[in-house]
Amino acid sequence: MGRTAPTYRQALEERLKRWDAFARLLTSPEDRAAFELVRTGARRYVAQATYVGSPDLLEAILLSVLTDLAGRVRAEPSERSGRR
Questions:
Q1: For 7-37, what is each residue's pLDDT tens digit?
Q2: Measuring CA to CA, how many Å separate 42 from each of 1, 7, 31, 64?
């Protein structure tokens, strides 16, 4: 017998595919690049989100994206500190 419920990875890819319409409406290259970073962040923590097994797919996606973005912000050179 096959699976009756999709894996987390399959559910994530289905959700990201639904976001394609939004991505097509982004007009600037900067916005499109930022949106791709969000998609990358959602995919980066697939193993952790699968292991947690939350019934709320969006919660797992948001935690993955936020964790990825927080790591990117922390890794940036502190250029902004001199601008205050």
A1: 999 999 999 999 999 999 999 999 999 999 9
A2: 30, 15, 17, 5
